Amino acid sequence: MVFTLSAQYxxxxxxxxxxxxxxxxxxxxxEGYILAGLTKYPFIANGDAMLIKVNANGWQIFSKMYGGExxxxxxxxxxxxxxxSEIRYYALGFTNSFGAEKGDAYLIATDINGxxxxxxxxxxxxxxxxxxxxxxxxxxxxxxxxFVGETYSYNExxxxxxxxxxxxxKGNLIRATAIGTEKYxxxxxxxxxxxxxxxxxxxxTYAPCSKDxxxxxxxxxxxxxxxxxxxxEWSRIIDTKYDDYILNDFAYCIKENSDxxxxxxxxTDNPYRSSGKITNTDVALLNLDNNGNVIWMKTxxxxxxxxxxxxxxxxxxxxxxxxxxxxxxxxxxxxxPVVLLHRTDVNGNPLYTITHGIHGKSYGYEIDRGNDEGYAxxxxxxxxxxxxxxxxxxxxxxxxxTSDGCNLKAEMKPYKFKTCxxxxxxxxFVDENMNVDSKELRVxxxxxxxxxxxxxxxxxxxxxxxxxxxxxxxTGCKIIDYHTLVEDQLMVxxxxxxxxxxxxxxxxxxxxxxxxxxxxxxxxxxxxxLKAGVYLLKIxxxxxxxxxxxFVKF
Length: 554
Description:
The chain is mostly beta strands. The chain is about 0% helix and about 60% strand. The chain is globular.
């Protein structure tokens, strides 16, 4: 068969251990993407924070791991181009290798090649994490960074608060604050700079939405508005109820509209299909006025566990505002979780629903605009018990589809909900932070695309995609033959004279074979000296065209 790389695709990246993707950002300078997440493979230690830079076709330019002797992860990544066209990547997450023993928020900056510029931690003596990072600009503090997350260091009752940090572009602390309710768990999931140079935060709290309730076992939407100095302007605890049900509500993302209202997505419990205990969830969409009061709320039901994780504001051809939500729903046939792309009009009425990831259990997180007016989604793909999770990346066209056929059109039913909302927040300002010496390691991750995800329980290893040979040309088109890999050699046949490099990497990034080719038509790679296991064949052709194939040596 002939498989041509296109601008709309699904790829997964990983090792023999588990990987996860949490964030994606379109990089305008090269029309590629930067992805952030984590790996459980011990490149540096027991688990590393991970950045993957890919080109427009989803092929790796670099994959780098960052961290120390314990565990790190990234939850958010952003790119920045300064006045001299220098590109930097900023990534935010968690570390327990540096800072306080229980873990701190972890921020790094790299150059365009992923080389570390600085790494810093933020937080007190207990646990902190960073969930969402943004590049911000204002006249008071200049261009810099702001992030939101969670802290356990500043609440006397040892419950968590929302944690907000403002820094300059070098990570130097300008201001930090802990915000929360008196004695309940609070968490910040998303932060955006608003048109008045303040900030809006979406998250959740376990504080009740009624002063008559003494304790609360349910989560509620938590929205907080800050001014330019991170001081609270207003806060809202928003709770949904249906008959006698008190529902769990989580706000994961918020954006400001041009009319200064806000749009929020997340998840809420579904009472419609439940008997007794509520076990199902729906995508939630809320429209708030500029004081945080609910204008309307709708939920969307397709599968057993539906949730919205991120939202974009888009305009249709007539100039009407639409909302595009990424998240997770369930496949209609297999009931497996799949990546969700759901578009509504400005009033929350559904326009279309697309699911991605039909060859395994997949989960969608952050969404960004992509090439050709399409969308890019980062997430996870769980293929089978032998493989575990891998970072899953989807790029779609403007209608939410990929050209590989690994997507399905679906339907989500909307429901309206009534809510209650009360004010409730306290605040203190804090200043703990430090520079740390992170390790970094460049590796090559296995890459697969959706048509190649063929589970074969009869194989010796339970792994996927074993090749006897494949063809490759300088335009990025390859011909793949599905045969059992021979034990001692791998034949690469080119459709025309090929000049470039061939490299074989072990799954932990060691170079096992390297050769420069000039005007070759075919090449035999002898692999009889390799130990049994999983390897990566990297082909670099003209114009730095890159292809990476995972294969199994028996």
